[in-house]
């Protein structure tokens, strides 16, 4: 059953130097209970897409050009403010990249969590819970993400915690509203490698326990392979390939996805040298016509510079946007 | 927190010593002979020398300095050579008039500047923002003496709504001083009519004095709020469903308050040291007027006293700002 359905979503950012066409016709469905990874290099629009689900991109400069994002059938892009407040945290919740920057440095953890709980109370027209109830609920949430001594943590400020603890706090906040969909935007990028593994394991455990639907955004295929059953690869604001993780890793069909995999080091075969994709990501203000990847593509033909390839199914769960795949 | 406090206070003592040295040096390098002034315009050489001995001005500089510091330690600011009155007594009277004026002006500046700054940041580039920008630019650009005269002419003289100048009507008996602040003293004595009268005299000069201060608080608060609202943790708070008013007035404003506090502290220092124009226009009996009239007659003890008081006030303002910084941001406290 489809939980989230993004259809031909185009988003532009208007700036002094022109309009950047950051998302160019994203089409993506996520079924309830699915774990979807979104992979792509920096600047491909992954985070902007994630923030679109909660309408967090500041508008202006952001401007929706076309498309719909339906969550449980409702178009998020057309939601009135009251409905949007009920959506944020309570239906779709988000975990962010750098937990040091995404926690308020001047407020203690308890205040920040109580604010989240109270905000969700008022959005849902529920009676505002008392300070004691908010405190108890916050402590429970912190304990549920594996933080020891939650009572003491509530009095701490973010700078007194380690990076991993902060990320756990952010995850606890995201769980406060019992969301259906958890969007994790590069949740491990700012963390030490050992902590990364712990956070990924925690997210996987929470997804399993609570039956969450997960959308995990990362530039790291390894992170996604470890946590997601399905992957969508993005390039310059478009989804170029969408397949079960195992399929995508074994038989990537889009030249960009193939390039991504070739760029990974192979620990079992030290003789294999990682190969980069030649060229660099295009300007989104002035993107190449046709397929946005064609200037860097080894198999591009004249058609690629003119006609934008649509996503087409190669197998039942495997779609690719390439004329030649 | 205690360590932070002690360190700040220790620093203040060092600064105070520096301030005393500066005051002393400035008074001594100024091209004026206080002995000649004290002795009067018709005095002969012998009388001037006698005055010099009487005021200890014939002693070597370091001795004079030690005596100056010793007198200050006993709360003795010396005597005015022009009037013969102890400077300490004059200062006490004039200082509280200026303090009262500045307190009201600063309260106006803060109570209007911060909410308007927040509103301008939240409704950036909308009509509220344009309106406050005009207010801020005028606040900085209008010369206080001109604006003061304009208010006197319009509101006090033509409309007759408020008195033109002074601190109280000459026929009014002021309450016996408790704090030296008329507004507070009249309230302490439960004298509402006196409070009203004091306020009616105070409000126009306070408005004129507050305008530049309001302008800079508003602009700093606005730009800091714009910055604070862009922070990642604000995005996170929105994503988690924190209420909008709570995000603006607590999550963002608390972060924006650090630089705003700094500007309030600075503005307080400047305000206390630059009341002279406003005091002159409104004939307000404060230290600004006192310092300028003493300086014109070359009477240095009052000038030194005022300089010290104004400098001390600056230091206290800085200390208070530092302490508030620590209270607001635990990272500073622990550093």
SSE inventory with pairings:
The complex is a heterodimer of chains A (325) and B (335).
Chain A: E1 2-15, E2 18-31, E3 35-39, H1 46-52, E4 62-71, E5 74-75, H2 81-87, E6 92-95, H3 109-123, H4 131-144, H5 150-153, H6 163-175, E7 181-185, H7 193-210, E8 213-218, H8 221-227, E9 230-235, E10 238-244, H9 245-250, H10 255-262, E11 312-315, E12 318-320
Parallel strand pairs in A: 3-8, 3-9, 6-7, 7-8
Antiparallel strand pairs in A: 1-2, 1-4, 4-5, 9-10, 10-12, 11-12
Helix pairs in contact in A: 3-4, 4-6, 6-7
Chain B: H1 2-29, H2 34-39, H3 45-54, H4 61-73, H5 87-122, H6 127-141, H7 144-158, H8 182-188, H9 192-229, H10 232-240, H11 244-273, H12 276-281, H13 287-296, H14 300-328, H15 330-334
Helix pairs in contact in B: 1-14, 5-6, 5-9, 5-11, 5-14, 6-9, 7-9, 8-9, 9-11, 10-11, 11-14, 13-14
Number of strands of chain A: 12
Quickly count the helices of chain A: 10
| Share of residues in strands of chain A | 15-25%
CATH architecture of the domain at 2-228 in chain A: 3-Layer(aba) Sandwich
* Overall number of strands of chain B: 0
Please give the CATH class of the largest domain in chain B.
Mainly Alpha
What is the average per-residue confidence, as pLDDT of chain A, rounded to a whole number?
A: 87
Question: Secondary-structure element order of chain A, as H and E?
Answer: EEEHEEHEHHHHEHEHEEHHEE
| Dominant shape of chain A | globular
Overall geometric form of chain B: globular
Beta-strand level of the residues of chain B, as a percent range?
A: under 5%
Q: Strand sequence of the main sheet of chain A, in spatial order?
A: 6-7-8-3-9-10-12-11
Give the biggest beta sheet of chain B.
none
How many H/I helical runs of chain B? Answer: 15
List the quaternary state of the chains: heterodimer
Low-confidence stretches of chain B: none
End-to-end CA span of chain A: 29 Å
Subcellular location (chain A): Cell inner membrane
Membrane topology (chain A): Peripheral membrane protein
Keywords (chain A): ATP-binding, Cell membrane, Membrane, Nucleotide-binding, Transport
Domain ABC transporter (chain A): 4-261
């Amino acid at each position: 059953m489809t939980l989230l359905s993004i259809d031909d979503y185009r988003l532009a950012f208007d700036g002094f130097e022109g309009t950047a066409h950051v998302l160019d016709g994203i089409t993506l469905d996520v079924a309830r209970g699915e774990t979807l990874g979104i992979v792509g290099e920096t600047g491909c629009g992954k985070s902007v897409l994630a923030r679109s689900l909660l309408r967090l991109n500041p508008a202006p400069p952001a401007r929706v050009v076309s498309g719909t994002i339906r969550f449980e059938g409702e178009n998020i892009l057309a939601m009135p403010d009251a409905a949007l407040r009920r959506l944020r945290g309570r239906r779709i919740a988000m975990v962010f990249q750098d937990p040091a920057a995404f926690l308020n440095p001047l407020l203690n953890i308890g205040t920040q969590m109580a604010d989240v709980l109270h905000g969700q109370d008022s959005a849902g027209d529920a009676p505002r819970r008392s300070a004691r109830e908010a405190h108890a609920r916050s402590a429970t949430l912190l304990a549920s993400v594996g933080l020891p001594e939650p009572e003491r943590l509530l009095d701490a400020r973010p700078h007194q915690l380690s990076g991993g603890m902060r990320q756990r706090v952010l995850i606890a906040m995201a769980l406060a509203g019992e969301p259906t969909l958890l969007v994790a935007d590069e949740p491990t990028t700012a963390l030490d490698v050992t902590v990364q593994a712990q956070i990924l394991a925690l997210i996987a455990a929470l997804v399993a326990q609570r039956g969450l639907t997960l959308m995990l955004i990362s530039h790291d295929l390894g992170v996604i392979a470890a946590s997601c059953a399905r992957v969508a690869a993005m390039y310059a604001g478009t989804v170029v390939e969408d397949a079960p993780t195992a399929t995508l890793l074994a038989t990537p069909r889009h030249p960009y996805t193939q390039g991504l995999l070739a760029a990974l080091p192979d620990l079992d075969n030290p003789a294999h040298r990682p190969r980069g994709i030649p060229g660099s990501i295009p300007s989104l203000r002035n993107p190449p016509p046709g397929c946005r990847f064609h200037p860097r593509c080894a198999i591009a033909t004249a058609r690629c510079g003119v006609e934008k390839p649509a996503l087409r199914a190669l197998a039942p769960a495997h779609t690719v946007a390439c004329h030649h795949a | 927190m205690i360590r932070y406090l002690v360190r700040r206070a220790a620093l203040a003592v060092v600064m105070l010593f520096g301030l005393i040295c500066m005051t002393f040096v400035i008074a001594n390098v100024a091209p004026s002979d206080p002995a000649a002034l004290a002795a009067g315009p018709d005095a002969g050489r012998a009388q001037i020398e006698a005055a010099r001995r009487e005021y200890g001005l014939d002693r070597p500089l370091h001795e004079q300095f030690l005596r100056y510091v010793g007198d200050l330690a006993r709360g003795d600011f010396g005597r005015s050579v022009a009037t013969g009155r102890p400077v300490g007594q004059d200062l006490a009277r004039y200082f509280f008039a200026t303090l009262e004026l500045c307190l009201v002006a600063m309260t106006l500046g803060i109570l209007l500047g911060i909410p308007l700054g927040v509103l301008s940041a939240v409704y950036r580039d909308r009509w509220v923002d344009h309106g406050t920008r005009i207010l801020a630019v005028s606040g900085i650009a209008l010369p206080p003496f001109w604006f003061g005269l304009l208010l006197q002419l319009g509101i006090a003289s033509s409309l007759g709504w408020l008195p033109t100048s002074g601190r109280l009507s000459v026929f009014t008996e002021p309450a016996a001083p408790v704090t030296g602040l008329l507004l507070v003293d009249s309230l302490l004595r439960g004298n509402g009519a006196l409070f009203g009268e004091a306020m009616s005299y105070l409000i126009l000069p306070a408005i004129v004095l507050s305008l530049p201060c309001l302008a800079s608080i508003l602009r700093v608060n606005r730009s800091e709020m714009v910055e604070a609202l862009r922070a990642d943790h604000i995005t996170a708070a929105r994503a988690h469903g924190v209420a909008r008013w709570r995000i603006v007035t607590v999550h963002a404003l608390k972060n924006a308050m650090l630089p705003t506090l700094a500007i309030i502290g600075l503005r307080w220092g400047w305000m206390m040291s630059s009341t002279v124009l406003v005091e002159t226009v409104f004939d307000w009996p404060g230290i600004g007027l006192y310092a300028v009239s003493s300086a014109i007659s070359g009477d240095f003890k009052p000038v030194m006293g005022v300089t010290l008081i104004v400098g001390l006030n600056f230091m206290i303002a800085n200390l208070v700002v530092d302490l508030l910084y620590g209270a607001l941001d635990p990272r500073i406290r622990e550093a």
